[in-house]
Amino acid sequence: MARPDEAPGDIPEAFGIERARLLKLLATVSETDWQKPSPCPEWTVLGLCAHLVGNDLSLLSRYRDQYHGTPSPEGLAEADFIEWIDKLQMEWVWAARRLSPRLVVDLLAWTGPQLVDAIKQQDPVVRSARVSWAGPDVVPVGLDQVRELSERWIHRQQLLQALDRSPDLRPELAEPILEGLRWAYPFRLSQIRAELGDTVSIDISGSVTAKWHLVAAPAGWDFRSEPGSRVVASLSMTTDEAWRLLTNNLAVDSQAQLHVSGDARIVEVIRRTRAIIGSPR
């Protein structure tokens, strides 16, 4: 099964841009807005921001300090791992409810530059990371960096939604994030038996335009610049639909309106592929 050889762009720079945009957004949040519900079940706007603080501190501990304070239990099935990580995240947000909005923003401003520095110290092409939604094998560090970037970008989109504002789909961040998220497809398609040259074509339109051809090869499904001998399934999405579908943020009724066709087995897989830790919905 194919793996990305390099990160899609300058990820440390992208982290800096993402954090600057988050802080600019949070500077506009009113006192009452902090308690608005977010798209994340049981979390307010403030709770979601506290979650981001926890993510930042965890990343610094792991990337910078090589400290893994909460390693996952070994041998967990995917569903059990999802349950374990969800509980861990809820525990953090529950404890952080004592923090004020000002303190949470101050902490995000403090961790941001340190995240950029920590990521700069890593070699993105070294294959030593693991990204569960991309498969069980080791992957380049750059894909793990994009995973971390995408989580922060996705949560900012959720904050924008909670505050009744439009999503921020500017391509300088949306493009590398989608380029990272797409690596969930080869792993999920690996369960499908296909003939060599069978192709799944995915078209993205909007602020990010892309055409992804997943072609069945001897070692698994691989991204190619051109389709193989036979297109067995196709999916067309806007930029907004693409990130939402891949991260469990696309409503069920909107999923039903996607332009998708082809082999029913493959269609079901690409509709249910997610580049997050979580069950498809």
Describe this entry's structure for a reader.
The protein has 281 residues and is an alpha+beta fold. Helix content is 48%, strand content 14%. It has ten helices and seven strands. It has helices at 11-26, 45-64, 78-95, 101-120, 141-162, 171-181, 184-189, 239-246, 252-255, 264-272; strands at residues 127-129, 139-140, 198-205, 210-217, 220-224, 230-238, 259-262. The strands form two sheets. A five-stranded mixed sheet has the order 5-4-3-6-7. The protein has a two-stranded antiparallel ribbon with strand order 1-2. Helix 2 runs parallel beside helix 4 (101-120). The longest helix is centred in the middle third of the chain and has 22 residues, at 141-162. It is globular, with a radius of gyration of 19 Å. The chain starts with 10 loop residues before the first helix and ends in a 9-residue tail after the last helix.
Summarize the structure.
By secondary structure, the chain is α+β, with helices and mostly antiparallel strands. The protein contains ten helices and seven strands. The two termini are 26 Å apart.
